[in-house]
Amino acid sequence: xxxxxxxxxxxxxxxxxxxxxxxxxxxxxxxxxxxxxxxxxxxxxxxxxxxxxxxxxxxxxxxxxxxxxxxxxxxxxxxxxxxxxxxxxxxxxxxxxxxxxxxxxxxxxxxxxxxxxxxxxxxxxxxxxxxxxxxxxxxxxxxxxxxxxxxxxxxxxxxxxxxxxxxxxxxxxxxxxxxxxxxxxxxxxxxxxxxxxxxxxxxxxxxxxxxxxxxxxx
Length: 218
Hints:
The chain has helices spanning 2-11, 15-21, 26-33, 41-59, 61-77, 90-102, 105-116, 142-151, 154-165, 170-177, 181-201. It is mainly alpha-helical. It is globular, with a radius of gyration of 19 Å.
């Protein structure tokens, strides 16, 4: 499997290092990895699946296999930049993954347009809109939603995916994308307006947006 070779080639971790870091927060693991590089394997083990799934949902499995290893390679090389006051490294890793996705924006857009032409056959098992509103899971609405995603600007699409698909809070998205929380809110608002307009013009009930508690207030 790709992740096995990545972990071996990147970190060549020892069993002892993994055992010592299992109970540590991500921040403490990264801090330890500054003197014991093999400790970073714990970050890989904890977060590889989530990052790989995120990449696969947005770009497909083939590109995800290639880019997941690159995410952790970059994280390892730049681990000194990680803010050790933040205990969870996952938003940071999502940010690295999102930056790599930006390089494949056209590929993602083509993929979404293909879904929009699927005549209601939703090919994604877990689409990003399902958590926005249960009505958006309807097969007849999926092509419209895929078309809406394809029309979003990269910055808006990134915020929507991280919020609705990966369940990140406003604060986590702000950290991942290095933008103010107010910017996260405004981008999500624009995405919701686009969805309302598209669904309304197609005779669907407009979506009122997420009701999940973001942890940051409305």
